[in-house]
Every structure is written in structure tokens, then in C-alpha cells.
Amino acid sequence: MPGSASVEARRALARKTFVAALAEWVNMHDLHAPFPMGPPGKDQACAAVDNEHSAQERCSCNKLYPRKCIVPGHEEINEDPRRRDLYRVWLGRNCHFLNNFVPPLLLATLSNMDFQATLTKDAVLHYMTKYMTKSGQGSLVKVMEHSFSLCIEKARDQMQGAGSAILRWFNLQSLTEVKSQLETMHLVFGVPRFFCSRDFRDLWLKSEIRQVKSKEQIGLCETQDASLTSRSGADVYITRFRWKLPPQTALLDVHPASKRPLWIEIVAAAGNHPAQNASLFDHADAVGRSWRPFLQRMSWWQFKRYYNRVGPSIKCKIRADVVVVHPVGRFTTAQTAAQWRDASCWTLLAHCNHGDGCDTFMDADHLNTFTDTDMDNLVTFFVIATMEERAQKQLAQCSPHVRKTGSSALLASSDKRIGITLIPKWHLPLARSLMCSKRLFCGIVRCTQT
Q1: Ramachandran category for residue 152: left, alpha or beta (phi over 0 → left; psi -120 to 50 → alpha)
Q2: Which residue among 83, 225, 304, 432 has its CA within the 20 to 30 Å range from the CA of 27?
């Protein structure tokens, strides 16, 4: 590097050189005896012996070393020769013994590491589970075997039976000795307990807890008689029609789901669809007129996932949050009428738009006054309604996971009915699906004027 290089360039070169030397020192699998390029000895930890004690006995490395060198640009995806249906990514390499590694992690941990890409669902279930439950003492099975033998010995010393030993093993020994790899990294190196590119938000449908205001929020109160607690999440959402139109800078922010500017999302809620390269200046009046329909069609779940409150208005989040609903409506496990009503209620509260200016319902108390038939009609229409029907009824979009589970549960529920199945007039798509079901041939489907 020339002497005129900047300090940052010199530091980058130093880090690169150090990581390369560290990888050669701690991340090399060149332990095969007697020759690194040959198979391992039978007594080595990586040895896999096929046809043992026979003339065809063959010893190979279960880590697949030495590995062939691959020129950059000629990477491969091949099936593991020792594990059927397990596919591996073979990246470019100029060394037969170097294990896969990530330079930033190697620099952070200063220890050997492994890096694998999981390409199939089975790989995620088996490979990731194996490594997440890996203990510092070896595999999880070995740890459990060791702890179980200790419990058996202790039970014998205390003249107790096998049942007592199993109970002690399950409740005490195994749970205290087994540590996940992430927990170990947290305890040893102080790294975060998890790495995630998204933030998680809880949506408490039954909670009426009001959080205490911060010092800054109390300072902004107009009078000394103002409450020291903020409004609940349900109150904030229901009174969203008081929010003001976002400023121009916020209107130009990109929506985290559609990747379009927020002002185009607002105008689209009123049925208008400007071009992608349209100007906010040319559609300023349309944005103002569409603000209330946009708020009307916003569900509680969408507000939590895509937007932040900023003063009297909202602002798009950079990335969509993962919203965890409590409690979640579970149609697939509903066996009784009461369970089906609960699933419908929680689903509608979270995903269906409601409030003062909506035609659906006002709040949770209002929804609880619905009869079973009215609630079933509303949740069915919310799940299966088309885009045109939603625009006509000013109804929020149904999230894909709710549409999938709700539609399957509705069809399964209707398939079990025998006799006359009442389908509201605006349930015709569902009625057609039910008529096509072979298991409903003995039923009579009738449309009502509800």
C-alpha cells in the first residue's frame, strides 16, 4: 500500500490481513493422519467408516475434507455424498482445507466457525435445530445421556426407583446443563441474544392498560389537570380520524409494503391510481380529499405494522414490523360455536377496519353485541370479498395469512353441515366453492337476502 493511503485504508488492510491469518490458524481442517490430503485415521473424530471389519472397509471424512478447489464464478450446488436430499453450496475456494467462514464474525469471535447455507425446508428443520441446541460439551444427545446416568446413580444411592430418576433428570439436570449456541455466545462474548432485521410489535386486543407518560409528554400538556397516563392502543386507533394529513416530506416517504410513496397509497384508497412517476404537486388536492377514506380503510394491524405516530399525524416505517397479535383468532382449531365466535371476534378486531366512521363496528364492546349469525356473516365477507366489494364497502384489505386460514376454515366448516346451508347474498363466491365440493352433494345451498 502506498504511503499516501488514508488511515482508514490502512486499517482496512490490517483487518483483512489479520482475518486471513486467523482463518489459516483456526479454521483449517488439515488434521488427517498421516497425510492431510488423504483420508483420516480410523480413530480420528471426523472419521466415517463404511463396511467396517470387512475387506471393503473404507474410511472417509464426514466433513468432506479435503475439498476440491473451485474457481470463482464456477460455484456449484450438489447433493451431499453422505446424506441423501441434503444439498450444499460449494463456493469458490483456493484451499483444500479451509472451512467456510464469515470475516466479520471471525474477527468478532476470534475463534473457529462454520458457515452453511440452508437450501431446503428439511435443512432448516434439521440442520438449524441441531446447531441451535448445540451445547459446549458436545451434542445434545451426549449431554442428555450424561445427565441421565447421573440421575440414575443418585436415585440408586437414595434407594429410589427409575421413575424418580427420570423425573429428576427431566426437571433438573437436562434443563440446567443444555445451553443453546446463541445463549453461549451471549454469555461468553456479550453479543445480543438475537439478530433480526425487523422489529417486533405486540398488538394486545384485550389489554386496556394505559402507559405512564414520559417527562417530555407531561411537559407538552396544556393544563396541570391533564392525565398522567396516555391513551390505550385501542383508543389511539379508534380516534384516528382526528389525525392530520402528513407533511410533504412524510408524504414522499416510501411505503414499506408497496414500495410506493405514501401519497400514492392515500390516493389509491379513494379509488384513484396515479402513475408511478406522477408528481405530488399535481395531485395535492386529491391527496387532501383521499385522507379520510385512507384512514377509514386502515386496520389496526396495518397501523401497527406500517406506520409510526408522529405528533398529530403518522409516518411510514422504513421496514414493516412483525406484529404479534394477542390473542390471535384460530379458525383451524375452533371446534365449538363459542370457539368459532372467539376466533371471528379477535380476527375482526385486529384485521378489519373499525371505528367512528366505519360501517363495520365501533369497538370491541360493540362487536360483542353482534349475534353469532351477524358476526359469521361479517368475518366471512371480510375474508372472501373481492377488491371491488371492498372498495364499495370501504373495507380494509385482508392479510394473506388470514385469507388463507379463514377461507380453508370456512370451507371445512361448511362441508360438515348437513341439510340447508344459509349463504348471504353477497357470499356467492363462497357458495360456488361449496357447490363444487363433492362432500356437500347431500346439502341444499340457499341464498338469503341478508
Answers
A1: alpha
A2: 83
